[in-house]
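Support request, please re-run this one:
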Amino acid sequence: MRLVNTDRFSNRSVDEAAAYWVMRLDAPGCAPSDRAAFEEWRRADAEHAEAYERARRALALVDRHLGSIELTDMGEQVFVETKSGHKSRFRRNAGAALAASLLLGAVLLFQLVQDPAPEQPVQVADNRFETAIGERSTVTLPDDSAVSLNTNTLVEVRFTQNSDTRQLVLVRGQAHFDVRKDPRPFEVIAGDRRVVAIGTAFDIRIDDELGVMVTLVEGRVSVEEDASEVDSTSSNLTDAGAHLQHRTVLEAGEQLIARPDRTEEVVLADIEQVVGWREGQLVFKNDPLHHVIREINRYSTEQIVIDDERVGALEIRAAAFTAGSTTKFVSAVEGMLPVKAQRVALDKIALVWEDEPGVNEPVEEDLRSLMGNRIYGCDDCLAVCPWNKFAVAASDTRYAAQDDLKAPKLAELVKLDDAGFRAKFSGSPIKRIGRDRFVRNVLYAIGNSGDPGFLEIIRPLAADLDATVQDAARWALVRLSSF
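Re-run finished. Output below.
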């Protein structure tokens, strides 16, 4: 039984139908029946899948040029020319129709401009598909399943339409598998793991440091440890069934991580982060900069380097960057974090720490006593802000104060080294000011405490590596000695 009538596009062009599906699948009201109808349409013809990929990529073009007079005129012309006499969800309202027609216009325009990220893979052999650094591509398999290859990826297809088992090898890189339902098992070998599915969607990545990562987007898969260590260069796979040691079944939204020489673990995945690359977007949430740069570097031959641990420890709280746009990424990071870019080679950019003018300088001495025991300014802002009279207690526990920071002990805070500071304030805006400025402020608070018991605790800081901390410690020592 069909959930919907997929023949409703029979009188429309393939590109028009593809434009509709891009808009419909992204709509808030998209239902399971819509997704089922889309899959039936996409798999009905290889041309449909290709048209959908063109429309999906063209959506980025719409985003960049939505205000363009030329594109708007094109969209209106397409809307007029494709207007039909019968009603359907494709013409549910004028707004949706215009958006879809704009997208269709972008599809047509997209075919006339050069794509900066080639989408066609290099087929190095009849059954091997490869993308270069910065490329992405989608391949339709003999069973009409689809494999999307990420940057610098090699996939080997080891089955035909008549094979009993649908088997592939992910030799390197990352790929997303959209598996068509079929009685035959669908297997992907990646490193020392074998992923088995019937009809589902999942992502696999092989990484030199992180190992094998399997993320299930929908459906169910089993991940089996394969001690046979399949040789991906061989044209024939040995029967590895006898060597299977362990099997883990994943549910939708779970990710299995199999690091080298470590016990595998299953965690909840952020699907947006995992599969964002399919739309050319790299999504980061509370990720250290060294991790973000490592990901950015996967998509370009122009590499970013950092030699300062402080720079690598800076966090990207929430951001999405275009894959392969190294220059745009660097510009964005310079605006977000205390870093500046320096070109050190034709294909290499270094990010170095850059303090804002005056931020690491000592506070004027006549102002230090007025600071009292205040060591971070956000609390004062909250206290005096008139809008806080409308505030209510947050129900989300993530906004609750940390128990160890409700009444922090100055004697403990002043002893923090850089690693201890970063660990204690991970995920907190306090981390942004850095250990040296934080300890400087703590020393001012200690100097204002009037407690000579701090003298022996802070004396070593008079020889701290940071000049500002040294100055604050000496000031506090003199002040406490006078009480």
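The first helix runs from residue 14 to 25. The mean pLDDT is 79.
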